[in-house]
Please model this.
Amino acid sequence: MKIVNYFFIVLISLVTISCQEEEEVVIEDTTQNIANRTPLTDLIIRVSQNPTSIDNVLDSSSCFRVQLPVTIVLNGNSITVNSETDYQLVQDAIDAFTTDDDIVNFNYPITIQYQDFTTQVLNDSDDLDDVLDACGEDDGFDEIDCVSVVYPILINVYDPNNELANTLTITSNTMLHNFLENLEDNEYVAINYPISMIDSNGETVIITNNNQLEDFIEDSIDDCDDDSGVSTPINLTGTWYVSYYFEGDDDETVNYNGYNFTFFVGGNIEVEKSGTYSNGMWTKYIDGGQDWLELDFDDSDLGDLEEDWKIVEFTETQLRLKHTSGGGGDTEYLYFTKN
Model:
């Protein structure tokens, strides 16, 4: 009888262990995780957002777009904008004379649509002014709308132990944009690769990891820029601060709080923090058709910034840089914002 009981206990133990092994969640490659407001997350958001800068000739804001058709009055003339091609009619009317006010007045009510695809009805110019005030100033980094995601895609959601908690099926730009916009701090998700993207030439590209996706989107930015055929000089002169520094998996922006960097023509940099000054040098060069910025500093606390940085994107008030170490090292991101 004892022998029977012994084998029964062993059998139960084996079944229990087997069940636990079947229920155990396989931990995914954490290097493929994306989180709230990482550079890759922001790039995907810009690819999937509502293209709100497309009608800036009408509303002078990339915060929203005006739903068509809409009728405007410009320099005393009424223009009905039925489709996106009609934006050129508005631009032509603005360019026709240099002595008019070129102010676009809408025939209300109008409906606007935000970057997250939500809509709002505006009944008069006061409503429009309220929306513009709430939007604030554009940062200059608009939608990346000449590339697109082929849906559906799967996104894995992880719990605090980095175990797979849920898998979501994303079927549209609206779903993808709003999902990523609403990621909370310390919440991690991962795209279930491979996925397909459509490039600026209409060709399908297979993407198999985060690095490929980031490079694909970054390389498409110039193609998506309406002014991509015009060479825009990068004006570094003035005083800047580090608004973002990310290395590997760590946001280390706080390490550069209080620093001010004044760039001078000729390559000198004056660094100031709490009334203490030091020097640096900057050199901009082109390699392989890509703009690069080399930084050197006397202050040893700025050693991590001494790299050859790829210039990913820039506006009059922000410069976005990226450095990838050789041999599979960490990727660093450095953003300067003008004071």
